[in-house]
Amino acid sequence: MAKGLALNFQGYQINHLRYDIDNVSSEVLNYGEKMSVGFSDVKTGVSADNSQAVFSCGVLVESKLANGKDGEVPFRKITFDYTGIFTVINAEEKEITKDDILALFDEGASYIATSYIKDIVKNISNLDYRMPLNVNVPQFPNGLK
Q: What is the CATH number of the domain that holds 105?
């Protein structure tokens, strides 16, 4: 990897956000909530001039409640498309490649995307009367390959 190369997080964009809460009986609400996290269409990209990099993925978080009869019923579901935008910093102004930039996602820049996805899910699920969903997101990109 090129020395003096870094990614500066510029922000993120959320598209196609949807938060669904199924109507369940108050009896079921007394049971614990289990959740799962899934990702789709995971991509990283670099601009033609190597000045910006993006990380994008689809996120699906689903929770279920035990129904007291050895089964589970769907409860909450959050879906959205996430895009994180980074500026490439080339401190030594040397020739860099797309592969040099993408290697930075393995070295920590992906941690930023992970943190924001967790916060987004927590903030969205905090809109209703239940406790916010605190999800464990695998480290990018290796946890999503």
A: 3.10.420.10
